Structure formats: structure tokens, C-alpha cells
Amino acid sequence: MKKTEKEWSIICKRRMEGDQKNIVSQKLNGRVSGLRSLLNKQEPGTEFTQELRQLIALLSPNVYQEVEEQKLHQAACLIQAYWKGFQTRKRLKKLPSAVITLQRSFRSKRTKMLLKLNRQKEEEDRRLQVQLQRQRAMRLSREIRLSMLEVVHPGQVEKHNREIEEKSALIIQKHWRGYRERKNFRQQRPSLTEYKAAVTLQRATLKFLAKCHKKKKLFAPWQGFRELTDARRVELKQQVDDYVRRHPSSEVSDVTSRELHSQAQEQLQHYFMGRALQERAQQHREALMAQISTNIEQLMKAPSLKEAEGKEPELFLSRSRPVAAKAKQAHLTTLKHIQAPWWKKLGEEAGDEMDVPKDELSVELGTLFIGGTKPP
């Protein structure tokens, strides 16, 4: 029976105590070398005879060897105990995983067996169904043949049987030829594959050789022009004549060319006239846009109705009055900027607007000829 860990621990303790006693005796034997001779000279019959004999037995070399052997035996037993305990614990730790692995393998094997049995059963059922279908088909065909024989005239029965035999023979021949052709194709497939591979290799090789030849031609030294022989000259002339014959040129007379020239001139003149009209219309549009922007600016700067005077509405009566007022304002601004001293021009530019009095703007506007009318 296997011993438990508690029993092994008790055995180890006892062996350790025996080891300690052996160690004490070894130390005594080594340190007290002349003690054995003195004890042997002691006369027997004294009070310490038995104890002395035990001490002499302990100090003898045979006892020392036995103690050493016992010590080694105890050490081996201790190592075995620890090793067996380690193996047992390891086995106990691996036991759940081993059980799980065993269960998994058993279940997988059982599943495979069930699948195999199900497949066999399905195959048997399918085989039985096919056999039943064949039997039904044979029965139906025989019934049809019997019904046909009942309908057909007795004199034409042989003819009818011959036709059926020919049809069945044709069907058998068709299936046999299909099977034979498929078999031949399977046998010839490796050779066809080799043939296609050879064609592919040849094509690639020819392309590679053509590229090499082309490179040689490109990097070959120039050998000069070939001499033009009479035969080559005749051949080139024949090629030129053939090309001219295949692509005849369109011959145009002088009258037709003049008419085409006049038509082209008329079309160009019409185009340039239309272009001039378009440019004028564009200029007119730009002028209108400028006038509209000027009117908007004047309206934005116009005073309110309460502050307006009698002369200000006259600025908006004609189309040219706002333009003239704007030009006058720009002119006066430029003059003031020029006449101003230098210290007033610091930090200003010539294009900056300046406040111009309204009296100066109204000067000479009454004498201007604006909008094609003259003031009274």
C-alpha cells in the first residue's frame, strides 16, 4: 500500500535523528584518537563495563561504515520520498486536463461514428430509392409497351419493335461514345497541357530574341547609307505610283479656286463686322454699369429730404449731371492735394478723398452743356 505524506514526514524525522547520532559518533571517533586503546586496557568487572563496551563498539571502524551506509540509505529514502511526492502532486494536477482530453476524444470519436452510421444509412436509403425508381420506370415502360402492342395492328408489331430497338441502340451508342470521348480526353489532357506549355515557352523565347535583336540594332555602329541601285529605284518608283493611284488628288480649276477665295473673304468680313458690333455692345454695357455705380454712390451720399436744398435735385435730373459732379469732385480733390502744404500731406496718399464744399461743386455746372440740352 502507498504511504501518505504524513507517514513519510514521520519517517524522515526519525531518519534525521539517527543521522544526528551518527554525526556525533563520527566526531568523537575523529577527535579522540587514543580513547579506544585506553578503553581496551580497562579491566572487566568494573561498574562501567557495559557502557564501555557500547562506547568501544561505537568507536570501531565497522560501526562507522555501517553508520555511513545507513546515512546514505536514509538520504536516498528522503530523496525518493520527495520525488514521489512531487510526481504524485504533478499527476493530481494533470488529472483534470487528462480527463477533459479523454472526454473530448471519446465524444469526437462517438460523433464520427454516428456521422459514419448516418451516412451509411443515407446511402442505403438512396440506393433503395434509386432501385425503386428504376423498377417503377421499368414497370411503366413495360406497361406502355403492352398498351402500344394492344393498339398497334398485329401486322405492324415487328416494325414497332424494330423502331424501339433502333432508338434504344442509338441511346446506348450515344452514351458509349460520350464515355469513350471523355476517357480519351482525360488520357490526352497531360499531352495537351505539355503542348500549351511548349507554345507559351516558344512565344516567350521568340519575344526575348526579338528584343535582343532590336537592342543589337540600336547599339550597332552606323554603317552608312546603302547604295541605291537601279532595281531599288524602280521598286520605289512603282510604290510611289501605286500610292498615287490608290489616293488620287482632288484637282480644282482656277474658277473654282477663285469662287472659294471670294466666299472665304465674305465669311471673314461678316465675322469681323459682327465682332465690331459685339465690341460696341460690350463698351455700351460697361458704360451703363459705370453710370449705375455712379448713381448709386451719389444716392448713398445724398442728404436727407429735410436737409436738401433746391439745387441738389438738379444733380439727378440728367444722366450726365452725376458724372460731371463726380469728375468735378475728383478734380477739386486733386487740386487741393497739390496746393496743400507738405506737412498736411504726411501720412496721406493722392487718391484719398477730401471733403469739398457743395458751393464749389455747383460752380460752372450751370454753364455746362449736359445731356444735349442747354440751360435757359
- Helix % is over 70%
The coarse overall form would be: extended
Low-pLDDT ranges: 360-376
Intertermini distance: 150 Å
Query: Into how many domains do the coordinates divide?
Result: 4
Outline the structure in words.
By secondary structure, the chain is mainly α. The chain has four domains: 5-126, no CATH class; 156-211; 269-304; 314-376, no CATH class. Helices cover 77% and strands 0% of the residues. It has nine helices and no strands. It is extended, with a radius of gyration of 66 Å. Mean pLDDT is 76; it is low at 360-376.
SSE topology:
Layout: H1 5-31, H2 35-41, H3 49-59, H4 61-151, H5 157-219, H6 230-246, H7 254-301, H8 320-339, H9 358-362
Brief overview:
By secondary structure, the chain is mainly α. The protein has helices at residues 5-31, 35-41, 49-59, 61-151, 157-219, 230-246, 254-301, 320-339, 358-362. The chain folds into four domains: 5-126, no CATH class; 156-211; 269-304; 314-376, no CATH class.
Features of this protein?
single chain; 376 residues; mainly alpha; 9 helices; IQCB1
